[in-house]
Amino acid sequence: MEYSLKSISEDVAVKLELDREKRKDDLAKLPVDEIKNKLAGLNAHRRELERKQAGLKLLIVIFIFVACAYAYARNSYISSAISHFDQCLAICSPYLSQEERIKLLAQYASVASKNDYQVLINSINKIAETNELKLPLFIIL
What we know:
Layout: H1 10-29, H2 32-92, H3 98-109, H4 114-130
């Protein structure tokens, strides 16, 4: 095996080549049984490394799957909440003044948590009860 002078110095290349030749000579002097044992040990070590690598890959895949499942569930929930609000507002719109509608939309735009959304929906529910309207159900988790 030749080493490029660009990658390592000539002294290091010579030393590596001498070490390789020495290992080759030492290996040639070993009995066949010892060579087989060393080979078996190296193969066992290789299989152990491959098993650990496969386990690490599995953990990464599981982590990515869980992250994607969480993002999907979160986005689905948010989308359902948006649709629910739109439905409720559409049902109550004939009974709202333009000013009340703008206030509800402003409150909707400032929703930052489950509690904020619950307060908004409670406001719309009061309007619906006053006008004897039936709103769709949405369970806020």
